[in-house]
Design brief:
Length: 400
């Protein structure tokens, strides 16, 4: 049975509570015999590619996905390029499918499921945000969606599988040879499977449909995709009511979440912490604790804080007190490299560096389930899934 959905909020209404609705979809993928080596076709997500690297991806292949996800202001050009590749047979559609992605990095492996996920507003409490967003990036992505009517990059979600059905299905899929294997950015190795069996699709749907999903990466793009879906319309099961989604079990051993450190550009120095002798000692002292490292005036300190999560308490107890009513985003710089944060202070770009431990993902999920959002750049899920593995056409006249 397929649920009837509200035409304005695109949520299902046949159950007592909204459900995470995953579907198979006719993914569009590179025809490798024509497009070439898949390692030359993929790229990192659009928002983590430095401008200086654009040329490298553009020159790797005339069909690299960078031409679609980073077209500058030429959004219509991206649409024309995509449709041209379809006509030339560079891109070809699959039958309705789900997909499995595996990434190997640093001696670890992570498995992800790729499917179409029904777009639902946050108030339905099915898709959970955990970070606040700003307007600018949404406008850029909305313009690209309007021009292409394509979901060009997967949004990344995590869910609580509890060792259940999806994990067992992934075990079955990865036991066979992958459809594609390729090297990715930063020395990662990837394998990719197509799952066209309707019985497996149904099993995935049942396994996930009582779960909440947490946005791991792509808050701006999720909100933009929902806005675009409302613009385009389509009935309850239209492809336009779904987004391309990559989902990872919160207990997946290869799921890695890194901290993002902060540098305060102006304000008073922080005192009262326990002095430590080095950056390495500071990072070791705060790991697994509700604590933050502070670097200023060539000295390291460790601030122990009361509360559940270091990032939240750092903003609440320290940064907000320093800045008062001023917008933190105007006074903060961000980096995932703790040594770079220290260097920025030494170079005079900031007065203090705040160093954070890796966030506890279950704590992030718990706060999101309670309806709480964290400061921007609270998590960095790693490694990012590459763009270019599969695309989803947002067709209001095609039912999934």
């Amino acid at each position: 049975m397929r649920c009837q959905a509200c035409q304005t909020c695109v949520t299902s209404s046949c159950a007592e509570a909204p459900i995470a609705d995953l579907r198979a979809f006719p993914g569009i993928r590179y025809h490798l015999a024509r497009a070439g080596d898949p390692s030359t076709l993929v790229a990192p997500p659009y928002d983590v590619i430095p401008d200086a690297d654009l040329q490298r991806y553009q020159s790797s292949s005339p069909y690299n996905v960078i031409r679609l996800i980073r077209p500058g202001a030429d959004y219509q050009g991206a649409a024309t390029t995509f449709e041209g590749w379809v006509r030339e047979g560079i891109l070809e559609p699959d039958p309705p499918s789900m997909y499995v992605h595996e990434v190997a990095f640093g001696g670890r492996r992570r498995r992800d499921l790729i499917a179409a996920l029904r777009l639902q507003p946050y108030e339905d409490r099915v898709v959970l945000p955990h970070e606040r967003t700003h307007r600018g990036p949404k406008e850029d992505r909305l313009a690209l969606l309007r021009a292409t009517n394509m979901s060009l990059e997967p949004l990344w979600f995590v869910y609580e599988g509890r060792g259940g059905g999806v994990s067992n299905i992934l075990d079955v899929v990865v036991a066979r040879a992958p459809a594609v294997a390729f090297g990715g950015p930063d020395g990662t190795q990837h394998r990719f499977w197509t799952v066209s069996d309707p019985a497996l699709h149904a099993a995935v749907h049942v396994a996930v449909n009582r779960e909440q999903v947490l946005i791991a990466d792509g808050h701006h793009r999720y909100e933009t995709a929902l806005a675009h879906s409302l613009e385009v319309g389509g009935d309850a099961d239209a492809a336009s009511r779904f987004t391309l989604a990559l989902l990872t079990d919160v207990d997946e051993l290869g799921l890695e979440v890194l901290p993002t450190h902060r540098v305060l550009k102006a304000g008073v120095a922080v005192t009262g912490g326990e002095e430590v002798g080095s950056l390495e000692a500071t990072l070791k002292a705060i790991r697994g604790k509700v604590a933050a490292g502070v670097y200023s005036d060539h000295r390291f300190q460790v601030l122990q804080m009361e509360g559940d999560m270091a990032l939240v308490e750092l903003h609440r107890q320290v940064i907000d007190n320093i800045l008062g009513k001023r917008n933190p985003e105007e006074f903060l710089l961000y980096t995932r490299d703790a040594a770079e944060a220290v260097h920025w202070v030494d170079e005079g770009l900031g007065v203090s560096a705040f160093l954070l431990p890796p966030p506890n993902l279950r704590q992030v999920l718990k706060l999101a389930q309670e309806g709480k959002t964290l400061p921007q750049k609270s998590t960095y899920f790693h490694p990012k899934p590459p763009s270019g593995m599969v695309f989803h056409r947002l067709d209001p006249d095609r039912r999934l």
